[in-house]
Each structure stands twice: as structure tokens, then as C-alpha cells.
Design goal:
Blueprint: H1 5-12, H2 21-35, H3 39-50, H4 58-70, H5 77-85, H6 91-104, H7 110-119, H8 123-139, H9 142-158, H10 161-169, H11 196-204, H12 210-226, H13 229-241, H14 248-261, H15 267-275, H16 281-297, H17 302-315, H18 322-338
Bound molecules: fe (ii) ion (2 copies).
Binding site for Fe cation 1: 62-63, 95-96
Keywords: Cytoplasm, Hypusine biosynthesis, Iron, Metal-binding, Monooxygenase, Nucleus, Oxidoreductase, Repeat
HEAT repeats: 266-306
Length: 348
């Protein structure tokens, strides 16, 4: 039996006043799963999520904006524009709203993005608008179409139907991974160990646009996932090198990528970021989530128990920003939930 939309709405919006944050997050992701079932459901889910933007948890609201983007439906644009236009919203929520417009990729969002890419006082918002504008322009261009065709062709030659299906279901990235490398020949994949130095060089080259450098970041992410075991650590290391960049947005995205990868090689770097009180809250938040994600996948060794201790410490550290504390609380509750054998598998 499918979960009931009214019940999920009540959970997400915390109507009773005592729904825990991790339960609200799970309601959000279940709603996202249900939206895929039909256009009607999708529109209903968008309306439900949009009601949540009056909540006081920036962490939850930034995730709601993220989900609206991932639904890839233009009905969400109106709500996302309201969020971006609202200076009272936390900058992480406004950032995610702008990024979501990029994920939906409709040229209709270009005027508002062009406004804030110039005028917003917050550099993270200006940078996010830059990314979204370039993504929308590329997606809707001949070059973008040719890149997608080439990628589909390579998937086919690779002969890996499961990997191709996984890619089709994968989250929409804020910038598509690099498709062309200097010496690509007719290889069926460019996400290989031998291309790591090229991706790394683009990632770290601050004379290039942020959009180009993001494309290298996601190429490195793909290399960890698809390049075979030998490629994993070099690609993770290249991503870690990007953490010394001066853009907080860039650093937060690297941490986000580590959350997607769940590779234990990122643990030392992510712990360092979470512990760094001078780091931007958005970056520390993603580091906390990445550590939680690694633990959800991983075992119970000493490294894992150290990470648990770090998460517990910052979950209760009143001097840490609220988004950092809440990220740790949600990560810990998620780990407990996933280790509870009485819980059903959730729909995502
Ligand atoms: Fe983000
Ligand atoms: Fe986030």
C-alpha cells in the first residue's frame, strides 16, 4: 500500500508539533518518490512542499528546495522564485532555490537568475546563479544536446545497462560532468584513472569559470564511481585538494560530493572541516552529512566510532551554527534508524 499523502504532509509540516527532524526528512524523500508516479501526484507534492517554506529550520527548507529542483517540473518555479526573492530566507535556502532552478533547466528562470547573479550581496548566491545560468544555457543548446547524445552512446558501448539505468535515476548535478578530454579517442568512458590529472588540473585552475571547475568536480565524482578501484583514491585525493579553494560554495559542493560517494578516504578531510569553527556553516553542514553518509554505508571500526563521537560533539555544541548542529542530529538519527531492523525500507 502506498503511503498516504495527507499523512506525509502532516509529518513534513510538523502539524502535531512533535515530529522529529529526521522523520520530517524521511517524509520529504518519500514525497519525492511518490511524485514520480504521476503528473497529478507531482503537482500535489510540489504544493505540499511549498507550504513548508515558512518553517524555522533552514536545514529542512534547503532540502525542500533541493527536492523541488530534483522533481524537474516547472510548476515548482513559482515557489522557488519566491524563496530566492525573499531576503528573510537563510542564504543556504536561497542558494538551494537558485540551484533548483538550474536543475529544472527552464529558460523561464533566466531573468531572475540574471538579476541575482549581479545584485545579490551574498557571493554564494551570485555564484549559484552563475552556475544555474550556465547549466540552463548549456542544456538548451546544440552543444548540450550533442554532449548528452555522446554520453548515451558511450553508455551503450559500455554495454552496462545497469550503470546506464542508475545514471538515469541519479540526482541532477548543478553542472554536468566533463564529457570531452584532450585525448579521448573513441573510449567508452572518460572517467578513468588516466584522466584524473586532467580533471584535477581543471578543478584547481582558478582562472577558469566556476562552472567549468564544477564540471571537473563531477567528472572526478564519476571517476570514483565508475573508474575502477585503482582510480578511487587518486580521484578522492584530487577532490580533497579542492577544499583549499577560496570559494565557500565550491568547498561545500566538494563536501556534498563526498556525501554522495560515501568513500571512507574522505573521513579525515570531512572531520577537519566539521571541526573548523572558522569554516562557513554551509561547508561544515555538508561535511557533517558526508560523515553521516559514510557511516550509514560502513562498518563499526575505530574510525567509525571516532566519527560518531565527532557528530555527537557538534550535535550539542551550542557555539556551532544551527544548521551544523541539526545536520549532526539528523545524521545520527538516520544512522540509528538504518540500523533498526524493525523499520521498513523507505521509498526514495
Ligand atoms: Fe548546496
Ligand atoms: Fe546541503
Amino acid at each position: 500500500m502506498l503511503p498516504d499523502l495527507d499523512e506525509l504532509e502532516a509529518s513534513l509540516l510538523n502539524v502535531s508539533g512533535n515530529v522529529k527532524l529526521d522523520v520530517r526528512f524521511r517524509a520529504l524523500f518519500t514525497l519525492k518518490g511518490l511524485a514520480a508516479l504521476s503528473q497529478d501526484k507531482c503537482e500535489r507534492v510540489i504544493e505540499i512542499i511549498a507550504k513548508g517554506f515558512t518553517d524555522d529550520s533552514a536545514l529542512l527548507k534547503h532540502e525542500m528546495a533541493y527536492v523541488l529542483g530534483q522533481l524537474k517540473d516547472t510548476h515548482a518555479l513559482y515557489h522557488l522564485e519566491n524563496v530566492l526573492n525573499d531576503p528573510q530566507q537563510h542564504s543556504m535556502v536561497r542558494h538551494e532555490a537558485a540551484e533548483a532552478m538550474g536543475a529544472i533547466s527552464s529558460p523561464k528562470a533566466l531573468p531572475i537568475l540574471n538579476k541575482y547573479v549581479r545584485d545579490d550581496p551574498d557571493v554564494a548566491i551570485r555564484e549559484t546563479c552563475h552556475l544555474a545560468i550556465h547549466k540552463i544555457e548549456l542544456d538548451n543548446s546544440e552543444a548540450g544536446r550533442a554532449e548528452r547524445e555522446l554520453q548515451a552512446q558511450r553508455d551503450k558501448e559500455h554495454g552496462d545497462a545497469i550503470a546506464a539505468a542508475a545514471r538515469a535515476a541519479a540526482p541532477i548535478d548543478p553542472a554536468p560532468a566533463i564529457v570531452h578530454v584532450p585525448r579521448e579517442g573513441d573510449a567508452s568512458s572518460v572517467y578513468t584513472l588516466e584522466n584524473v590529472p586532467h580533471f584535477r588540473q581543471v578543478l584547481l585552475d582558478s582562472s577558469l569559470s566556476l562552472f567549468e571547475r564544477y564540471r571537473a568536480m563531477f567528472a572526478l565524482r564519476n571517476t570514483v564511481q565508475q573508474g575502477g578501484e585503482d582510480a578511487q583514491e587518486p580521484a578522492v585525493k584530487a577532490l580533497v585538494d579542492g577544499l583549499s579553494d577560496k570559494s565557500a560554495l565550491f568547498r561545500h559542493e566538494i563536501c556534498f560530493v563526498f556525501g554522495e560517494l560515501c568513500h571512507p578516504a574522505c573521513i579525515p578531510a570531512m572531520s577537519r572541516v566539521l571541526r573548523d569553527g572558522s569554516e562557513h556553516e554551509m561547508v561544515r553542514h555538508e561535511a557533517a552529512e558526508a560523515l553521516g553518509a559514510v557511516l550509514e554505508e560502513g562498518g563499526q571500526d575505530t574510525e567509525a566510532s571516532e566519527v560518531m563521537d565527532t557528530l555527537r560533539q557538534y550535535a550539542h555544541d551550542e557555539s556551532a551554527p544551527r544548521v551544523v548542529r541539526e545536520s549532526c542530529v539528523v545524521a545520527l538519527d538516520e544512522i540509528a534508524y538504518n540500523n533498526d531492523p524493525t523499520q521498513f525500507q523507505r521509498i526514495e
